[in-house]
Amino acid sequence: MEMAIFLVMGALSVGFSLVMILARKPVTSAMSLVAVMFCLAVLFALQSAHLIAILQILVYAGAIMVLFLFVIMLLNLREKEGEESHTKGYGQIFGGAIAFTILIVAVGSTSMSGSPAGLSSDRFGTTAEVGKILFTKYILPFEITSVLLLAALVGAVALVKLRMR
Amino acid sequence: MDSIVSLITQPLVLELLITLVKIGFILGLTIGFFAPMLAWVERKQSAIMQDRVGANRAGVFGITVIGLLHSLADAIKLIFKEDFIPRGAERGLHTLAPVIAIIPSLVVFAVIPFGGQYTLWGHEVNLVIADLDVGLLYVFAIGSLATYGVVIAGWSSNNNWSLLGGLRASAQMFSYEVTMGLTVIGLVMFYQSLSLVDIVAKQENFWHWGIIWHFPAFVLFLGCAVAENKRVPFDAPEAEAELVAGYFTEYSGMKFVMFWTAEFLEMVSISGMCVALFLGGHHIPFVTQKFLLTAFGDLLGQDIGAVVVMLIGVGVFITKLVILLVLQMTIRWTMPRFRYDQIMKLGWKMILPLSLCWIFLVGVGILTGVMPRP
Description:
heterodimer; A: globular; B: 2 domains
């Protein structure tokens, strides 16, 4: 059962990713990306990481992609601009091949044994467990990330102010 | 006959049947009852508040039932309307948008408890379709998807009014989602759970109700809820004075009805969540479920008594739901529409800082023991 769901969702996410890259209309691409997020959320839920699954939908599908759509609509993009990029795609194919090779090597060289991130397996993925480990073992990366985001925010505001002057 | 009975009493089949009954009940309650009733209330209440007679013409053989049949007449009329798709519209997305708009408001109900846990004939029945340990986050995650229906509708119609409506809706709904999420953080800290079933269970004692300890959060949450549902005074995305009808300008017939129904269903689901978070779910003030169970158990026997208590619980939940709906309806016919920049200012510069303040105060309250956690 789990295997079947995994296969269907995996195939769907790959399919929607392809649609996202190949679609002519930006809105179609954006909506396919939303669908990919959904498939990924189901895959997370299969791994009994319910919190991550929900956050995947809440943050990526619910918030970030809405902003994407907002920008697409604000610029009123109907068809993809720069049509010629479709015809000379050798560079993209080459780049994609290199990225794929790196990915294969990286996955191959990582050992996947042991419980992920040192979580106890029976309560793995619950909100309490994730919260506990986030505020103890991973507190430094967590805080650094928040500072990084704050810096990005301030930077964006500064850039806008600069242009307004 | 015997084979059917033995099939039904298998645990898995029984579980499946109970879940199906619960889903059927929720669908019947929301689409079957609340959606047409709210359409009627919207007309009749506005009529009363504006000193008019209101809808009273539709009737069968002269029986009009105070205008109740208007919902039925509307449904028949709208089914037979032409389904119009404007030239240059994205046909696929244009058709898909109402569906995307209506589904999240229904799916949210999966985690909202509309009753408690009961033991009927030796079988545990929990009156919630799915008791997720991340129930509250699930509501926000699914609720945030409702934006897509509106945005896609606005974009795919190939109409400037629709596009502007969709643009406004995306920014507004996104902003108020963030704020709405922050208003309930204090409650999560207080009840120490993200599961709505847990939160309701901890409100059995009236003095632990959310509204008692978190009244400011309740007010902020309700304000955000009205904004999130795009109802007056926050209906800038469909402002008929500026944008014809906003994002659903180019919709007719049943697709239009789906947007309309989605709005009512969002109201119902957000009220249901409000009942679960702040108003104690199915609990009656100062009456514990145990007391009811023993009282009715002595009177009618263990199982029939439990059924009666269950029905009372569902009735109490629906009563609280109706009170919140009437409150929202009254707000809708009392306030004039806010300007778009006012809506944004209210969300980001007032409700957001206030909810952050409330989180801080709850934290202080819990640490100093002023706010005893249930």
